[in-house]
Structures are given as C-alpha cells and as structure tokens.
Amino acid sequence: MDIVEKALQIASKNHEGQYRKNTDIPYITHPVAVGMMLLKSGYSEEIVAAGILHDTVEDTPLTLDEIKWEFGPKIAELVEGSSEPDKSLSWKDRKEHTIEFLKTASEDVRAVVCADKLHNIRSIMRDYEQVGDEVWSRFNAGKEQQKWYYTNIVESLGVQSSFDLLIELRKEVDKLFGR
Length: 179
Known about the structure:
InterPro entries: HD/PDEase_dom, MESH1. It comes from Neobacillus driksii. Residues 23-130 form the HD/PDEase domain. This is HD domain-containing protein. Pfam families: HD_4 (PF13328). This protein is globular. It is an all-alpha fold. It has helices at residues 3-14, 29-40, 45-53, 56-59, 64-71, 73-81, 91-102, 107-131, 143-157, 164-177. It has one domain (3-177): Hypothetical protein af1432 (Orthogonal Bundle).
C-alpha cells in the first residue's frame, strides 16, 4: 500500500469522532490539509505522510512506537518532532518548548510544523471572518498570546533558512495579527 494512503487510513481511523475546536468540522480535515500543502510544495511521500500523522501521537491513543512499526523510524522521528512532548505542562511552557526546539529542528520537521501552523492560521482567519473576536474564546490562550506564539514560531522556523511555506506563513501571521 502507498505510504500516503496508509497514513490517511490510520489518521482517519485514529481521529474518528474528533472535531476542530468548537466546530462541526471533522478533525481529519486538518491533517489532510497539512499533507496536501506538503505535497503541493514538492516534499517527499515520507514528509507528506508525517504531515498527515502529525497529531496522532498528541491527540489519539496511537503511540510513537506504533508509528515506527507501521511507517519506519524516519516518519516516526518527523511525527515526534512535530508533536508537543508533554501535554501536562502549561500552555506557555509547551509553546516555549516548541519555539526553542524549532530553532535547531531538521528541515523536514520544520516543513511539517510550518504546514501545520499555516493551516491553523488560515482556519483561524476563516473563522475570524465569520465570528470576529469571538474566535479567540475557542483557545486556551487569547489573541495576544496567540500573536506571541505564532510570531515566535515564524522566527524560530526561519533561524536556519527560509522556504516557501514559511514565506506564506509569515504573510498570513502578519495579516491576521496586523503587522
């Protein structure tokens, strides 16, 4: 079976019954969109599969060992690098860890994370157009904290080099938060 198709099946099964924050949109649309962004940007099937699987370890019962067994060490490494390591930490501690980690992360991990954040920002922008400032109440942290997070993510992703998805993310973050 094709690795991307296998990732779609496993992610769909594991995200079944989950929805995007305070919406009726099935959660699987997010990892699929992340994978499609990576595919359109010319990344390998392994990176596309990792993009599709990026939230499974963080948000479903699927473990990193199971991903390694099903997809091999490279995809497991990409999924691990795209996941928050400790959900028991506070929102700010988790985000600070991610910001620092991305400064030295591999180019492939940075691509997956960038596609993830780009889809998140675009989703927030669409929701903002529909409900205005109410959109910020959907999150554990409000607008100013989200601005801090996404602005720092853009900076961290660009420490080593710039790439097309990062250029798009920077534009969208600036548009949403008004730079």
